[in-house]
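Comment thread on ticket #2218

A.B. wrote:
> Attaching the input chain for the structure job we discussed in standup.
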Amino acid sequence: MKRYLSSLALVFIASVAYSQQLPQYSQYMHNMYVVNPAAAGMNDYLDINLSTRQQWVGIDDAPKTYYLSATGVLGKREKDTGPSLSIPISRPDLYAAPAEAGKRKLKHALGGIALVDEYGPFQRTFINLGYALHIPIGKKYNFSLGASLGWTGMQFDLNSIKLQDANDDTFNRFVGQGDQANMFDLNLGAMFYSDRLFMGYGLYQIMRNQISFGGNELSDARLADHHYVVAGYRLGNNIGITPSAMLRYQGPAPLSFDLNMRVDYQQKFWLGLGYRHEDALVAMLGITIADLIRVGYSYDYTLSGLNTFSGGSHEIVLGLMLFKN
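C.D. wrote:
> Ran it. Output below, let me know if you need it in another format.
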């Protein structure tokens, strides 16, 4: 028992290898870029999202997540307004072709996210930039492939650790070369979607970096690859009903899933319910203002044994939809 507190930092690090490493999101449907880089450009406007999530309120040092993301299409074509004076009138096909019905072109999109995730004595910072290629299929379906590359910084707060033995050799070796770690990683994704349907697969932390502080590598402590599968379909028009699901896998933890049902009115007001396997019940509501601002709130009621100590989790997402046609 004597060395338990002195080894607390090592316990946290070891748990990183086998527990939740990436943040949870209850409102992934409103910003799928957080679980799939191929989602950048799914919407034909500049989509900016700011979010905060306070997990397991009431428990000291529980996870807190903040992020800012932006996605948008490159080189978007404006509406045709007739022939340009720079195009010879003898070649009307040069300006007429884009207006012909049924012709759809490839889309190129960029995305980026800056995220801070705090838990216990650790703070992780992510900065990722991504690219997605959207390929039209038929008249209304699309297939996209995406990748994001970024930097992850991990910082360890030495002041939050109280040692029983100030000369603990194990702890001193752990922090002897610094309290920060820097890693670069790659994420991949694919999406199949239309104006009503979405199906996607995202793979994060492909490089499975070994965790090290100041050059000290901790044996088997590594970032784990995370797999996300999402799917949903919107039914109805003025009143829409959208069932959706997300499967998550991070070995060696068992497969987990979210089931959600959202009801919206003219895509301006929405209510939703969700279930996270063996973890939480989720209630969601939101509003879109002037076809420009989107605000969403969700509350997670904890179902696990943590509900004795936790007041649940809160998540707020504020979105801006700029340059819409």
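A.B. wrote:
> Thanks. Noting for the ticket: Residues 8-16 form the longest helix (9 residues).
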